[in-house]
Design a protein that fits this description.
The chain is an alpha/beta fold and about 290 residues long. The protein is built from ten helices and eleven strands. It has helices at about 25-30, 45-55, 75-95, 110-135, 155-165, 175-185, 185-195, 210-215, 245-255, 275-290, and strands at about 10-15, 35-40, 55-60, 60, 100, 135-140, 170-175, 200-205, 205-210, 235-240, 265. It has a nine-stranded parallel β-sheet.
């Protein structure tokens, strides 16, 4: 039966909720709930082997120093690069093939051109090491925290440049339309341009709130009310299908490509958060949407 995702297996990203800490129990629940893949966060060779032995597909494994790779101090940066090169080798020997990270400078006020130069200097050696090991690094375009939104590899300008300036064989995209939508970048146009560089896919959506945009604009906080969890006043992350992402178009583009990885639900939705029961329900509803007949 054709589904929204076509030939792609459906999985989810493991998070730091206590009920997900027991990996054998989590893998059993995932299989019983109809999932075919799982993404690990920072992990160990034993956990990688456990996923592979379970019959589930392994999506991504987080690099070390998540969000802290781009440190200005040369000695610290070299140490972090070396640790991650060793980690790439160790985890690839266990069976990991795709590694996940985000790119944040340690100084959020750093000039963006300086942060980009730091990213090239940092990612270049990792790209070479990954290529030699025949593994890949998928970078996600989470913009980083307000008010500076300092992360790189979020919009076409730096995605295009970093792939060009490092190694397109081993450096690519963790495609997550939710981040593009909140930034105002057309997720379908982005996917068409960068399709050969998509190494992994997250299924997460973004809802907009026109009344809040009218009251506050896109960037200012309210003087009187709290923002959405996993969002701000004008927007929030949601389950796939509960926001504005054009999923039929996005999956049509992916299905015409050579992408062969899983589609992994990243559960960041305030309505399905805070208890095992609500998070399991959120994952189940997201899987149901993705597995629905096209």
């Amino acid at each position: 039966m054709p589904t929204r995702t076509g030939q792609f297996s459906i999985g989810f990203r493991r998070n730091n909720s206590p009920w997900q800490a027991d990996l054998p129990a989590l893998l059993q629940w995932a299989e019983q709930s109809g999932f075919q893949a799982i993404d690990l966060t920072q992990s160990t060779p034993a956990e990688v082997r456990a996923v592979i032995a379970s019959g589930l597909r392994l999506g991504t494994v987080d690099l070390l120093e998540m969000g802290k790779l781009l440190v200005a101090d040369p000695a610290q940066r070299r140490q972090r690069i070396d640790r991650n090169i060793a980690y790439l080798r160790e985890m690839s020997e266990a069976g990991a093939t795709t590694f996940f990270t985000v790119l944040l400078p340690d100084d959020f006020a750093m000039k963006r051109s300086d942060a980009y130069a730091l990213a090239v200097e940092t990612i270049g050696p990792l790209a070479d090491a990954a290529a030699a090991l025949n593994v890949r690094i998928a970078i996600e375009g989470w913009p980083g925290p307000a008010p500076t939104y300092p992360a790189l590899f979020c919009t076409p300008e730096t995605v295009r440049a970093l792939i060009r300036d490092t190694n397109p064989k081993s450096i690519g995209i963790n495609y997550d339309p939710s981040h593009l939508i909140r930034l105002g970048v057309d997720p379908a146009r982005f996917l068409r341009e960068f399709l050969p560089g998509v190494f992994h896919v997250h299924a997460k959506d973004t809802a907009h709130f026109p009344d809040a945009i009218y009251e506050l604009g896109l960037y200012q906080d309210s003087a009187f009310t709290s923002p959405h969890k996993f969002g701000q006043h004008a927007w929030r992350y949601t389950l796939p299908g509960q926001g504005v992402a054009p999923w039929p178009e996005l999956f049509s583009i992916l299905n015409e490509s050579s992408y062969a990885g899983p589609v992994s639900i990243e559960l960041e939705d305030e309505n399905f958060h805070g208890s095992p029961e609500s998070e399991k329900l959120g994952l189940a509803l997201a899987r149901e949407f993705l597995a629905m007949r096209a």
